[in-house]
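[audit] Reproducing an earlier prediction to check determinism. Same input, same settings, fresh worker. If the tokens differ from the archived copy the diff job will pick it up downstream; this log only records the rerun itself.
[audit] input (167 residues):
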Amino acid sequence: MLICLDTDYRDPRAQCAYALFESWTAAEPVHVNCVQIEQVAPYEPGAFYKRELPGLLKALASIEFPLEAIIIDAYVWLDEGRGGLGWHLYEALERKITVVGVAKTRFRPAEKVAIPVLRGESQNPLWVTAIGIEVAFAAEKVKEMAGEFRVPGLLKLVDGRCREWGE
């Protein structure tokens, strides 16, 4: 089983949406849900993980299936030897589950550790980083994910779902 996660903020709260799916090429999720965090850390430049990690961990704690990989809308590596959100998540999970980062914007130093992936007809790449598997393999898997547009369909699904607060 694989999972995509994304988070939206309404300070001081956050909502993390996730979609479980059976294979890298799956077009439909097996399950979609959201969890809320009542108090998130304030934004701190260079420490995005402090704000985002608690929601990801809370969402993952609700999953009973073994996971092959976690796909997040963020970087795993920011530069050689400098971990991003994905690295912090991997460490928090005791290095037991592969984490693949799919970023929509280019982070300048990350071009040394990220692989650009073009999907659909877009000439604007996604930036893929990974830990627990080879980044080239992760990039191929992201390219194979379902959806005809730049952002894979299941990542787009959780991006939209995390913004639906239902207040």
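[audit] rerun output stored. Observation attached for the diff report: The mean pLDDT is 95.
[audit] end
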